[in-house]
């Protein structure tokens, strides 16, 4: 059965401005991969991330480079060795999962042994001045789980402002590698005082050994420090949880292995995302069915999503429809 691979760059406007410690953006630039066979097509989406040395152009080239292998019949398992972990492999891997579901008539959820149900996703508040973050938190105070972007020398005022504005919400803070050895202890104490559930990647990847010698007053989750299954063993002394993102693992196939190994090691699990469309969230929504935290609000941050897209009611995310993926 001959298969054909195509990939295109697309841009989706963000509602307002999305800001983290490394900068701001007004649109989500994604790559959509389509693999077709017997008149059916499977799709996958990835979001190249400059923090990991990825550019849209290079990721697109990496996807198109495996076109001959796909045409020759390379499957998901073979793709794991033909492509490195990252955004490009994610798009190809998820497109193959989707195509397999269509060709066999067996949904991905069924193949995984999952009966999908609605899950609660975090809703992200961009980094801004404390007053602006308090206003955003107040506007979303009805949401059960907020994820707050931090990463400044004065995040204590931001944590206090958000907690005061959203007293009933559970809160994750994400420093995006923006804290330092000098302010880590102060921020941890304030996080504990403000009843923060989880702190994501406080220190730069590669400079996080300090966490093994720090009293972790609030559980700490690795993001930039963890990409694939092989990374997990070396993180157990410094992190309590890991953020699994398909754009880091290189797709659902590796993410499933990583999730199982994280569980075996006793690590908590968040399933997260880059800012992308419903097509990128759909496979992650199946991965997130039984994890500790889901952070799959990408489409909620966009001014325009794909159609059909995922259904959200507030912070409740419903299982992906087959017309979208899987």
TrEMBL record:
<dbReference type="InterPro" id="IPR036849">
    <property type="entry name" value="Enolase-like_C_sf"/>
</dbReference>
<dbReference type="Pfam" id="PF13378">
    <property type="entry name" value="MR_MLE_C"/>
</dbReference>
<keyword id="KW-0479">Metal-binding</keyword>
<keyword id="KW-0460">Magnesium</keyword>
<comment type="similarity">
    <text>Belongs to the mandelate racemase/muconate lactonizing enzyme family.</text>
</comment>
<dbReference type="InterPro" id="IPR034603">
    <property type="entry name" value="Dipeptide_epimerase"/>
</dbReference>
<keyword id="KW-0812">Transmembrane</keyword>
<dbReference type="InterPro" id="IPR029065">
    <property type="entry name" value="Enolase_C-like"/>
</dbReference>
<keyword id="KW-0472">Membrane</keyword>
<feature type="domain" description="Mandelate racemase/muconate lactonizing enzyme C-terminal">
    <location>
        <begin position="130"/>
        <end position="221"/>
    </location>
</feature>
<feature type="binding site">
    <location>
        <position position="223"/>
    </location>
    <ligand>
        <name>Mg(2+)</name>
    </ligand>
</feature>
<dbReference type="InterPro" id="IPR034593">
    <property type="entry name" value="DgoD-like"/>
</dbReference>
<dbReference type="GO" id="GO:0046872">
    <property type="term" value="F:metal ion binding"/>
</dbReference>
<feature type="active site" description="Proton acceptor; specific for (S)-substrate epimerization">
    <location>
        <position position="245"/>
    </location>
</feature>
<protein>
    <recommendedName>
        <fullName>Dipeptide epimerase</fullName>
        <ecNumber>5.1.1.-</ecNumber>
    </recommendedName>
</protein>
<feature type="active site" description="Proton acceptor; specific for (R)-substrate epimerization">
    <location>
        <position position="149"/>
    </location>
</feature>
<dbReference type="Pfam" id="PF02746">
    <property type="entry name" value="MR_MLE_N"/>
</dbReference>
<feature type="transmembrane region" description="Helical">
    <location>
        <begin position="265"/>
        <end position="288"/>
    </location>
</feature>
<keyword id="KW-1133">Transmembrane helix</keyword>
<feature type="binding site">
    <location>
        <position position="200"/>
    </location>
    <ligand>
        <name>Mg(2+)</name>
    </ligand>
</feature>
<dbReference type="InterPro" id="IPR029017">
    <property type="entry name" value="Enolase-like_N"/>
</dbReference>
<dbReference type="InterPro" id="IPR013341">
    <property type="entry name" value="Mandelate_racemase_N_dom"/>
</dbReference>
<dbReference type="GO" id="GO:0016855">
    <property type="term" value="F:racemase and epimerase activity, acting on amino acids and derivatives"/>
</dbReference>
<keyword id="KW-0413">Isomerase</keyword>
<feature type="binding site">
    <location>
        <position position="174"/>
    </location>
    <ligand>
        <name>Mg(2+)</name>
    </ligand>
</feature>
<dbReference type="InterPro" id="IPR013342">
    <property type="entry name" value="Mandelate_racemase_C"/>
</dbReference>
């Amino acid at each position: 059965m001959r298969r054909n691979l195509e990939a295109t760059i697309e841009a989706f406007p963000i509602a307002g401005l999305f800001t983290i410690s490394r900068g701001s953006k007004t649109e989500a630039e994604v790559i959509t991969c389509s693999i077709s066979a017997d008149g059916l097509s499977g799709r996958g989406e990835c979001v190249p991330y400059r923090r990991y040395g990825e550019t849209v152009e290079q990721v697109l080239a990496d996807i198109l480079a495996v076109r001959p292998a796909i045409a020759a019949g390379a499957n998901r398992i073979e793709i794991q060795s033909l492509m490195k972990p990252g955004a490009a492999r994610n798009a190809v891997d998820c497109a193959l999962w989707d195509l397999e579901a269509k060709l066999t008539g067996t949904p991905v959820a069924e193949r995984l042994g999952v009966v999908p149900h609605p899950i609660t996703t975090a809703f992200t508040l961009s980094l801004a001045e404390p007053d602006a973050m308090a206003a955003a938190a107040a506007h979303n105070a009805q949401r059960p789980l907020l994820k707050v972007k931090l990463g400044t020398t004065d995040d204590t005022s931001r944590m206090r402002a958000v907690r005061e504005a959203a007293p009933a919400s559970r809160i994750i803070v994400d420093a995006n590698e923006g804290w330092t050895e000098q302010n880590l202890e102060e921020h941890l104490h304030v996080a504990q005082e403000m009843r923060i559930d989880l702190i994501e990647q406080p220190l730069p990847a590669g400079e996080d050994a300090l966490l093994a010698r720090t009293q972790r007053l609030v559980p700490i989750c690795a993001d930039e420090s963890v990409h694939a299954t092989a990374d997990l063993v070396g993180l157990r002394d410094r992190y309590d949880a890991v953020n699994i993102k398909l754009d880091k693992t290189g797709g659902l196939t590796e993410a499933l292995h990583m999730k199982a190994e994280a569980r075996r090691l006793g690590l908590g699990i968040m399933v997260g995302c880059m800012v992308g469309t419903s097509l990128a969230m759909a496979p992650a929504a199946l991965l997130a069915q039984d994890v500790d935290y889901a952070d799959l609000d990408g489409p909620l941050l966009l001014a325009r999503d794909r159609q059909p897209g995922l259904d959200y009611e507030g912070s409740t995310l419903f299982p992906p429809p087959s017309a979208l993926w899987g």
